[in-house]
Amino acid sequence: MTDRHRRRPPSAKRQGLPLRYPPRGRFGPFGGQYVPETLMPALEQLERGFLQAWADRTFRDEFDRLARQYGGRPSPLYPAARLTQHAGGAQILLKREDLVHGGAHKFNNVLGQGLLAKRLGKQRIIAETGAGQHGTATAMIGALLGLPVEVYMGAVDVERQSHNVYRMQLMGAKVIPVTTGTQTLKDAINEALRDWVASVETTHYLLGSVVGPHPYPVMVRTFASSIGIELREQVLALQGALPDLVIACVGAGSNALGTFSAFIDDSRVGLLGVEAGGTGRSAGRNSATLSLGSPGVLHGARTYLLQDHEGQIQPTHSIAAGLDYPGVGPEHAYLKEQGRAQYRSVDDAAALRAFHLLARLEGILPALESAHALAAALEEAARRPADDVIVVTLSGRGDKDLITVAARSGVSL
Amino acid sequence: MGGDPTPKRSAAYVRALASGGASVIELGVPFSDPIADGPTIQAAGLRSRAGGTTLQSLLRSAKQIHRQIDPPLVLMLYVNLIEQRGVQPFFDAVAAVGIAGVIVPDLPLEESGPFSEAAQAAGIDLPLLAAPSSGPRRLAAIARSSSGFVYLVSRYGTTGARKGLSPQTRELIGQAREHAASARLPLAPGFGIATPADVRAVWAAGAQAAVVGSALVRTVASGAPPTALRTQVERLMGRRR
Ligand SMILES: Cc1ncc(COP(=O)(O)O)c(C=O)c1O
Fold first, then answer.
1. Of B75, B79, B168, which to mutate for an interface test with A (greatest number of A Cβ within 10 Å)?
2. How far apart are CA A257 and CA A242, in angstroms?
3. Given its phi and psi angles, is residue A253 left (phi above 0), alpha (psi -120 to 50 degrees) or beta?
4. pLDDT tens for residues A155-200?
5. Nearest Cβ partner for B31 among A186, A295, A312
């Protein structure tokens, strides 16, 4: 790679984007490009294409236009008065990514990568999906841009997110159930990577989060950072000050990084990532990678993983399919080691309680993923003074989770 | 795949490969997430793990097997298994049991530095993998940074037997062979090479070796006796019709 390819996106400053563009995607010891040689030239092309596109006003204007006209951005920042009152402490504001087209923050990333795939002349898009949210968003963008989409989805997730499978199919995407390994998100990524090794000349792999080999973590964070850029302006306009604490759930970490990235240099703003505590601390009962895992290499990057002592990846669990992943974005691993962000876990039961609470108090059904962030926000708000401000990224809406929630409440739909 | 289907049967299969005339024997280490492998080798890894094989147990049995056979043993495994052991401790452990080389399918040139250094310090060969997409500049650099041989992934896709060799593969061998030659290393194409005709074709195209994986793993998977594997290797080597 030449130095030209390593430079920062020239327009980053203008947009207030984080200027952290590490060479070859190294966040300290984390990140990198641990992939088969077959993919290396494609990753180089992707990085070059991304940097050129991001520096190109035409591309950026198209990205912004579609985000507004098609995606419904900017998403509102909503002061949740009844929730705040219930928590009895700090004020809670919700960044409403659940209102974005598709019902989740996933929109930003798929729009950016979709436009990029088109610009690079790719004829086909593949993606993995866990909850089905990223697959749905990819299907949307495939229809919008006229590109065929194939989505790999673990057979277990196909079962528990059948609504989203049908949504993808309605928009013309082909959903391929993955029956290898644990049959969840991790294995869907494995299968998408295997497809890409065979199809890389014509196909773009539209990865759904800030994981994978460089340039994915930095590229996905850049596309997702609309969340934080909007939020920063909105909270300043509303409160006249930056928030004390910013909270987001962390599956692989894109909505959290998209939120955090606008505040990284504001050292007085606390950053809290919330992982899935599942049903306990032992292996196979949670997906709390940063809280309970250790560094290793998976899906092209060195990061925190849930693994055994030899390095075999462990099965994971979460009530929220979108958090059910044994790895995490390498930049999160770095923020954790630097102490710039804190990470903790919230278990299935607490997430469910937060889900019901938001429904009753505010008339909002959050995604179960987002409910993890909410549960942590309730705890934090209760122990902080009333003039503290906590912002929570509500990463998605809970329509996809109705069957899961109903089953937990003994209701059959 | 090492330990497929059980450690004991696997050792018998390895001896059969040796007596059939294989010049190098590659032992796969099972991994939970083998992204470079197709269905045949994925299934072998699952059988091996179900039979209780771990990296540690495989190293132990390699130590015995290597004393019983002539051809060198080479391990194939994914980066994370090396990382968890520690890079230098891993290569030292590998050297201590008499293994000659290590192939790492998810370790590209750019990340190989610390691994190559540790391998060299332990006296272990670490061939890097070249691919159809590499192009002349990367091919040359990969050959220069390889030791033992240059592993040429001869087509797009994962491991797995395919019908017939593509003209693209022949062309690729033609390009890669100069780079391997100037690094004074043999060129070993692999991925999708399954039959005696495939082997003859890659040799005719200028390769000095051929890596046959899934086609042999399939024989093991079928439950055939070790003698069947020996016969298959004899045919691949052109020693038997
Ligand atoms: C609503 C919602 N929130 C969060 C996530 C987790 O993804 P990430 O951690 O990349 O934001 C998902 C993933 O599917 C999701 O659907």
1. B79
2. 17
3. left
4. 988 987 888 999 999 999 999 999 988 888 999 999 999 999 999 9
5. A312
Regarding the beta carbon of A77 and ligand 1, being less than 6 Å apart is answered: no
Cβ count near A19 (within 10 Å): 11
Does B92 participate in catalysis according to the annotation? no
What one-character-per-residue DSSP string does B162-189 give? -SS--HHHHHHHHHHHHHHHHTT--EEE
Kindly state if the Cβ of A104 falls inside 6 Å of ligand 1: yes
For residue B5, whether the previous peptide bond is cis, meaning omega lies within 30 degrees of 0, is yes
Residue B108 preceded by cis peptide, ω within 30: no
Shortest Cα distance, chain B CAs vs residue A48, angstroms = 16
ipTM of this predicted structure: 0.97
Query: Over the range A123-140, which residues count as b (16 or more CB within 10 Å of their CB) and which as e?
Result: ebbbbbbbbbbbbbbbbb
Q: Is A320 left (phi over 0), alpha (psi -120 to 50) or beta?
A: beta
Q: Looking at ligand 1, which atom is closest to the CA of residue A253? A: 9
Q: Which residue has the tokens 């950053």?
A: A271
Alpha-carbon span B14 to B74, nearest angstrom: 12
Question: What tens digit of pLDDT does each residue of A306-356 get?
Answer: 999 999 999 999 999 899 999 999 999 999 999 999 999 999 999 999 999
Contact A310 B81 (CB under 8 A): yes
- pLDDT (0 to 100) of residue B163: 79
Which B positions 156-175 lie with beta carbon below 8 A of chain A? 156-158
The identity of residue A199, as a single letter, is S
* CB of A176 closer than 8 Å to CB of A149: no
Residues of B in contact with A311 (CB under 8 A): 31, 55, 80-81, 83-85
User: Cβ neighbours of residue A209 under 8 Å, at least 6 residues apart?
Assistant: A109, A134, A220, A251, A252, A253, A254, A329
Does the Cβ of A370 fall within 6 Å of ligand 1?
yes
Residue in chain A lying closest to B139 (CA): A37
* Beta carbon of A254 within 6 Å of any ligand 1 atom: yes
| Residue reference for tokens 């607490």 | A350
pLDDT digit string (tens) for chain B, length 241 residues: 999 999 999 999 999 999 999 999 999 999 999 999 999 999 999 999 999 999 999 999 999 999 999 999 999 999 999 999 999 999 999 999 999 999 999 999 999 999 999 999 999 999 999 999 999 999 999 999 999 999 999 999 999 877 788 888 999 999 999 999 999 999 999 999 999 999 999 999 999 999 999 999 999 999 999 999 999 999 999 988 7
Average pLDDT, chain A: 93
Provide φ and ψ at B29, rounded to 5°. -105, 125
